[in-house]
# Entry
Amino acid sequence: MKTNKIEFTTANVSTAVPSLTQETEKLADCGGLGRREKMKLVLITEELAEAVKNLINYGAAVFCAENKGNEYTISFTIKPDKTIYNDERKKLISYSTSGKNASATGVSGKIREMAEKVIADHLELKEMNASNLIGHRNEAFLSDGSVVWSLTSYRSDAEEGTEEWDELEMSILANAADEITVGVMGGIVEINAYKKF
# Structure
């Protein structure tokens, strides 16, 4: 089953999140999930929506969720109508004392940061080495040239006692979802969370 698609924009941000939650609850009910599993699926939707909120400044996001048996996917796609350029982005971040993007903390911050970089210039991404692009060790090029960030590779690269490890331990989203991916296809940014019950 698939939910209705809901557009998530700066104009409807306050009303969209309850609608996303309702659609997710309907999907969980149709899939026969129990109260606890339903709450987990809603939590994934709300946490992912929180990460996407900052991205809707670049273009509307479209929410959709679906299940195939006991496997659920929560999706946001963003087709940017406004571009920030990598040079502008780097200049803004350079004003930070640490030289790092201070808002890109936690797993939600990493998702948002990766999506912003994809939006910044998806054509340039096809020509760059992913490890130079983001500065994390867990991005990879797909065979079609798309860049993807995944929670699984982020988890496998995190070393105990590091900031990355602590972020994973404390992240609601990382503990609720089985996998999260960020990618680009034809200029459209896709953020997907997967959960199997």
Q: What stands out?
A: The CA atoms of residues 109 and 127 lie 25 Å apart. Residues 91-104, 125-145 have pLDDT under 50 and may be disordered.
